Amino acid sequence: MSNQSVETVGSKSGYVIVALAVLIAAGGIVGYSFLTEQPTAVRLVVLLGGIILGLAVAWFSQPGKQFIGYARDSYNEARRVVWPTRKETIQTTLIVFAFVAIMAIFLFVTDKVLEWALYDLLLKWRG
């Protein structure tokens, strides 16, 4: 038996707040596209204001806090990844290229043998 904790679904109010945040951010995007007659600076303020306000509203919801925690954990996990060196990457790439070339030659030879067997031997023998 594992010691993992079980997460329960949050309250409906948290999801309502997230939906409200999405609508606010979408309002900023829609406002940007509808204010074509306004100067670009005003349009950008509406766009960025909507997105920032939407993020701020989402920040205070339970699902928003869970997402932020998940994003932090994902970032920390990505920092712990041991990436291959340049030499390892080049060697692996060359192995893949060699395998592809060998498979291409094998498939070409197999195709030509089947072509010869079917067209030259079987059809000439039959006909």
From TrEMBL:
<dbReference type="InterPro" id="IPR001901">
    <property type="entry name" value="Translocase_SecE/Sec61-g"/>
</dbReference>
<comment type="subunit">
    <text>Component of the Sec protein translocase complex. Heterotrimer consisting of SecY, SecE and SecG subunits. The heterotrimers can form oligomers, although 1 heterotrimer is thought to be able to translocate proteins. Interacts with the ribosome. Interacts with SecDF, and other proteins may be involved. Interacts with SecA.</text>
</comment>
<keyword id="KW-1003">Cell membrane</keyword>
<keyword id="KW-0811">Translocation</keyword>
<keyword id="KW-0812">Transmembrane</keyword>
<feature type="transmembrane region" description="Helical">
    <location>
        <begin position="89"/>
        <end position="109"/>
    </location>
</feature>
<dbReference type="InterPro" id="IPR038379">
    <property type="entry name" value="SecE_sf"/>
</dbReference>
<dbReference type="InterPro" id="IPR005807">
    <property type="entry name" value="SecE_bac"/>
</dbReference>
<keyword id="KW-1133">Transmembrane helix</keyword>
<keyword id="KW-0813">Transport</keyword>
<feature type="transmembrane region" description="Helical">
    <location>
        <begin position="41"/>
        <end position="60"/>
    </location>
</feature>
<comment type="similarity">
    <text>Belongs to the SecE/SEC61-gamma family.</text>
</comment>
<keyword id="KW-0472">Membrane</keyword>
<feature type="transmembrane region" description="Helical">
    <location>
        <begin position="12"/>
        <end position="35"/>
    </location>
</feature>
<dbReference type="Pfam" id="PF00584">
    <property type="entry name" value="SecE"/>
</dbReference>
<protein>
    <recommendedName>
        <fullName>Protein translocase subunit SecE</fullName>
    </recommendedName>
</protein>
<comment type="function">
    <text>Essential subunit of the Sec protein translocation channel SecYEG. Clamps together the 2 halves of SecY. May contact the channel plug during translocation.</text>
</comment>
<keyword id="KW-0653">Protein transport</keyword>
